[in-house]
Amino acid sequence: RAKEMGGNNFQFYTAAMNARLLERLSIEKDLRNAIEREEFVLHYQPQVDIRTGRIVGMEALIRWQHPTLGMVLPHRFIGLAEETGLIGVIGAWVLHTACAQTKSWERAGYGQLRVAVNLSARQFTQKDLVQSIANILAETGLAPHFLELELTESLLMNDVEAAIEILQGLRALHVQMSIDDFGTGYSSLAYLRRFPIDVLKIDRSFVRDMTLDSDDAVIVKSVISLAHNLKLRVVAEGVETQEQLMHLRILECDVMQGYFFSNPVPAETFGQILREGKCLAMEAGGS
Ligand code: C2E
Ligand code: MG
Ligand code: MG
Ligand code: MG
């Protein structure tokens, strides 16, 4: 192999391409070992009911504590995990850890929280998905309606009929389903009606500009009424300012998530937030 690489073809690689390839190979090797070396952690970001101000759940977000690179964010390794198939083991670890943690917060008396977990495309089409989620729920003792799976539009639209079938299998387990980054893909309204889902999560790009750009404000408003007409909950992601929050409250958005309330934090910190009973300030715009 080294011989092949060192041959004539080698000159076609630019130094930069070569460096990238080497980085990729080394990250891939590290990724293979990361699970058993326990280098993954989940951070949790609160989801807050906009009407009551209370924490109703959290999104679990994976981080990789790499021995030399430090904290690596998911956009740097989830794609690679997908390509290599490692997403199977990593995804199962995420689901198990998130469900076990949620159950332990429930046992600690912090109320009944729902945990949202992101699924990637390859995980979604994995043959034993429904069975493996059923097993994880049984092992951890978490009631299925406290688990919410986040799926992207493009993942669902890739093969609509297959997606509907998988969603129906998951629905039979009584887990909740959410469309993440809603508005960035191109799902047709006709399909949206056929997907057995529970939540639309408005992409943060619309939330970010909704107080500056009237087009984005209209999009947010339309997604909220669309969701409510379809009897779905709406979560706004990436809420960073009081102004955005007020606007979302007026538009009767159900749940907010974003830096304005809290960054994603390690489990211990999240436990602390729950113990303190942190709530969203309800002053102004309430009535
Ligand atoms: P996502 O599911 O849309 O997650 C929301 C992302 O927005 C997170 O980035 C979060 O840290 C960030 N965020 C939250 N609030 C704010 C805010 O107020 N402002 C801004 N600018 N950003 C905010 P993160 O953790 O880097 O995750 C990026 C993406 O990686 C996620 O996007 C999700 O698609 C994927 N991901 C994360 N964890 C997992 C996982 O366990 N499995 C899979 N398959 N994908 C994951
Ligand atoms: Mg998500
Ligand atoms: Mg999202
Ligand atoms: Mg997003």
From TrEMBL:
It comes from Undibacterium arcticum. Residues 24-278 form the EAL domain. Coiled coil: none annotated. Signal peptide: none annotated. This is EAL domain-containing protein.
